[in-house]
Design goal:
The chain is α/β, with parallel strands linked by helices. The chain has 20 helices and 19 strands. The N terminus is likely disordered.
C-alpha cells in the first residue's frame, strides 16, 4: 500500500519542472550577510542574482531577486495527515524580498480583466508589505476581496499568469503575499466584526452559501439590508466546506469567517433545501429580493457500458462524504451522525477520470486513504513546457504543471499518475456487480475533433473509478418552480454586471449563472450582484414612497 511504499521511499528527492505552476517542496529563505566591521548595523544585506550583496531595494527588485514561492510540506510528510499543504512560510526578510519584486508597473495587468477577477489592488498591497505596513495592506486587500483567506489558498492565481514580470522572467508570488497578509491580519486581531449602524428595513434571501452566496450576503449586510442565507447542507460554506478538501482549505478557517458574518448580523439557515422541502415562491413572497447562488452541481456523466456498476462515483460525492466523515470524527459525532455512506479508496486500484483541480483533489484524498495504486486519465494531450504561440501573455499559461496530488503520487509510487490522450470506453464488472477494470482507447485531437486510435485499446485494473469531468449546470428545481429563463447550457439567464433574471426581484450569480468557474469569480459576481440588488431595492423603496405606501426611504443609500 501507499503507506509502506512511502515509508520505504522516505527522504527520496522529487523533482518538478521549473514552471510558474509548480510549487517547491522545500524553501530556503534568502541568504543574508551583515557587515562584521559594523556590528551595530543590523540592516540585512541580501544576495542578489549577480552574486553581490546589498540592502533590499525595490528599484530593481524584479531584476535583482529570483522568485521564491512559499513551499508546500514535503509529500512524504503531508500524505499521512489531513493538515493544510502549506509549510510555515517565509521569514520577514524573504517576504520583503518577494514583495520587492513587484515592478510598480505603469499598467498592472495582474489586477485587470486578464488577471484578478476581483481586481485586487495587488501593486498597492505588495508595496505596503515591502514597507512593513501590514495593517494598511489588509485594508487594501479587503477593499476588493471579502475572503482572501479562501482565494489565497485555493485560487489558481490568474493574476500571476498576467504578471508583467512574467513576460521575461517568473511572476511575483502574488498568491503567497495575499495569503500572508490575511493570515497575519487574523493573528494580529485586525479582522474584526463590522456591525452596520444603519438598517434599511428591507430583506434579502440568498439561496446557497458558497463563495458567491457569502460574498453577496456580506456586501448587502454592510449596506444595511437584512440578509438571510439558506443552505441545504448541515454546515455553511457550500463547496468551501464540502467540495474543497481540508488539506487545501482547513474548515476551521471557513467557519471562522462564517462566525464573523453571523456576528455582523447575517442569519444562516442550514438544512433548508429550497425548491424541495421549502417552496421558493413562498420564500420570494416574504422577502424584498431573492438571490440565487446555487452553484453548478450537476456533474458531467460518462454514459458508457458498465456505468451502473458499484464503485463508480462522481468526484463531488467522493469528496463530500470524505469531508463529512472527517468533520464528524473531529466533532465526536461520527457514531451518532454518520450514515455509513463513506466512499473509501483504501487498498484499491483507483482511476480518476478527468483532470483539473477537482481531479487533483480526488488524487490527494485517495492518497490519504492509502490506495493501492492510482491513475489519472486526461482526454487532452500533455500540455507544453512553455507557452505555445497561440497562448501569449497575459493569458493564463496553459503549460505543464505539477499540482500537489501529482507530486504526492510521484513521491510514493515513483511516477506521475497522469495518462494523456485517453478516453474511457467501458467499465468491466465482477459477478457481484462491482467494477473491477475499465477499458480505454487512445485518442488524437485534430481539426475535426477527437478521434480514437485504432488498435489502441487497453484494460486497466480498477476497484474505484472517480468521475471528475466537471459540472454542466445547476439543478433545475428552483429554476422550474420560478419559470426562469435559462441559457443554452441550462444556466440561469442573467446578464453579467446586472444579474437580474427574467423574474422581477430575483437575481442570480456565481456558477449557476456563468457556469463552472473559480472561487474568485464567484466572489466577483457576488459583489456585483449586491450592487444590483441594492439599486433595485432603492428603486423599489422610492416607488413605494411615490405610491404612498409605507416603507423605509432608501434614497440616501449609496448606489
Amino acid at each position: 500500500g501507499a503507506a509502506v511504499v512511502a515509508a520505504n521511499n522516505l527522504g527520496a528527492a522529487v523533482s518538478t519542472p521549473a514552471t510558474p505552476l509548480c510549487r517547491s517542496f522545500s524553501s530556503s529563505n534568502h541568504e543574508i550577510w551583515r557587515d562584521p566591521e559594523n556590528p551595530n548595523d543590523n540592516t540585512p544585506q541580501v544576495l542578489r542574482r549577480d552574486g553581490t550583496y546589498g540592502e533590499i531595494d525595490k528599484t530593481r527588485g524584479f531584476v535583482d531577486y529570483s522568485r521564491n514561492p512559499d513551499a508546500y510540506r514535503h509529500p512524504l510528510e503531508r500524505v499521512f495527515d489531513w493538515g493544510e499543504l502549506n509549510d510555515d512560510g517565509h521569514d520577514p526578510i524573504e517576504r520583503t524580498v518577494q514583495a520587492a519584486r513587484c515592478m510598480d508597473c505603469g499598467t498592472p495587468f495582474c489586477q485587470t480583466h486578464t488577471g484578478c477577477p476581483v481586481n485586487n489592488l495587488i501593486p498597492e498591497w505588495n508595496d505596503l508589505v515591502y514597507k512593513g505596513q501590514w495593517r494598511e495592506a489588509i485594508d487594501r486587500l479587503h477593499k476588493t476581496n471579502n475572503f482572501p483567506e479562501f482565494t489565497g489558498r485555493v485560487c489558481p492565481a490568474p493574476c500571476e499568469g498576467a504578471c508583467v514580470a512574467g513576460l521575461i522572467d517568473s511572476p511575483v508570488t502574488i498568491k503567497n503575499m495575499e495569503n500572508a497578509i490575511i493570515d497575519r491580519a487574523w493573528e494580529e486581531g485586525w479582522v474584526v466584526p463590522r456591525v452596520p449602524t444603519f438598517r434599511t428595513g428591507m430583506s434579502v434571501a440568498v439561496v446557497g452559501s458558497g463563495p458567491a452566496g457569502l460574498a453577496v450576503a456580506d456586501q448587502l449586510n454592510q449596506m444595511g439590508h437584512k440578509v438571510t442565507v439558506y443552505e441545504r447542507e448541515d454546515r455553511v460554506g457550500g463547496l468551501l466546506m464540502y467540495g474543497i478538501p481540508n488539506m487545501k482549505l482547513e474548515k476551521e478557517k471557513v467557519q471562522r469567517r462564517v462566525d464573523m458574518l453571523i456576528e455582523e448580523g447575517i442569519e444562516f439557515v442550514t438544512e433548508a433545501n429550497i425548491g424541495v422541502d421549502i417552496d421558493v415562491n413562498v420564500l420570494r413572497a416574504n422577502t424584498d429580493a431573492l438571490v440565487l447562488a446555487l452553484g453548478a452541481t450537476v456533474p458531467r456523466d460518462l454514459p458508457v457500458n458498465g456505468r451502473e456498476l458499484k464503485g463508480v462515483h462522481f468526484a463531488m460525492e467522493f469528496l463530500t462524504k470524505n469531508q463529512k466523515r472527517l468533520l464528524m470524527a473531529k466533532d465526536g459525532t461520527i457514531s451518532s451522525g454518520w450514515d455509513k455512506s463513506f466512499v473509501t479508496a483504501e487498498g484499491k486500484d483507483v482511476i480518476v477520470i478527468g483532470g483539473g483541480d477537482t481531479g487533483t483533489d480526488c488524487i490527494g484524498t485517495s492518497m490519504r486513504h492509502r490506495c493501492k495504486s492510482i491513475v489519472n486519465f486526461e482526454l487532452m494531450p500533455e500540455p507544453p513546457q512553455e507557452r505555445a504561440d497561440n497562448n501569449p501573455w497575459p493569458e493564463w499559461p496553459k503549460v505543464f504543471g505539477v499540482d500537489y496530488g501529482h507530486a504526492e503520487v510521484t513521491a510514493v509510487f515513483g511516477e506521475d499518475p497522469r495518462e494523456y490522450s485517453v478516453m474511457t470506453k467501458e467499465f468491466i464488472g465482477d459477478d457481484e456487480g462491482n467494477v473491477k477494470a475499465l477499458v480505454t482507447v487512445d485518442v488524437e485531437v485534430g481539426p475535426d475533433g477527437i478521434k480514437p486510435v485504432e488498435g489502441s485499446e487497453r484494460e486497466w485494473p480498477c476497484d474505484l473509478a472517480i468521475l471528475a469531468m466537471g459540472f454542466v449546470s445547476p439543478e433545475d428545481d428552483i429554476i422550474n418552480d420560478l419559470s426562469l429563463d435559462t441559457d443554452q447550457r441550462a444556466n440561469v439567464h442573467a446578464e453579467y454586471g446586472d444579474y437580474r433574471t427574467s423574474l422581477e426581484g430575483v437575481f442570480a450569480c456565481g456558477d449557476c449563472r456563468r457556469g463552472q468557474s473559480l472561487v474568485v469569480w464567484a466572489i466577483n459576481e457576488g459583489r456585483g450582484t449586491a450592487e444590483s440588488v441594492n439599486s433595485y431595492l432603492v428603486e423599489r423603496s422610492m416607488q413605494m414612497n411615490d405610491d404612498g405606501l409605507e416603507g423605509e426611504n432608501l434614497s440616501t443609500i449609496k448606489m
